[in-house]
Design brief:
Length: 110
């Protein structure tokens, strides 16, 4: 019997919603309390946590403040197709440097 493994992908909005739902659960916080903190109704927050409604940036900041987190802690990390996280590192290897178009030296007179 062969089993198929399908990799499920989530939108960034769904990842944010899952993270906030996880915080609500693990910290024993009600949706009503979070809704009041971010300035929305509990029913609207429920739609956001389910991923039906997109989070506004000011709501994300308010939610992060409510949980005592930095807003980046609510955002998903980018993942490469191989499943390795991409970090916004400034580290550059010498063999990765390639000049773009328009950076060629002038060769007039040769």
């Amino acid at each position: 019997m062969a089993t198929s493994t399908t990799k499920r992908t989530f939108t960034p909005e769904q990842c944010i919603s899952m993270k906030i739902n996880q915080l609500l659960f693990t910290r024993h916080v009600t949706k009503k309390a979070l809704a009041e903190a971010i300035g929305t109704s509990p029913s609207n927050l429920g739609r956001k946590v389910r991923g039906d409604v997109v989070w506004a940036i000011d709501e994300l900041y308010a939610a992060a403040d409510f949980f005592g987190l930095d807003v980046v802690d609510l955002l998903p990390r980018r993942v490469t197709p191989q499943g390795q996280e991409k970090s916004p590192s400034t580290e550059v290897k010498g063999d990765d440097l390639v000049a773009g178009a328009g950076f060629e030296p002038t060769t007039s007179g040769l």
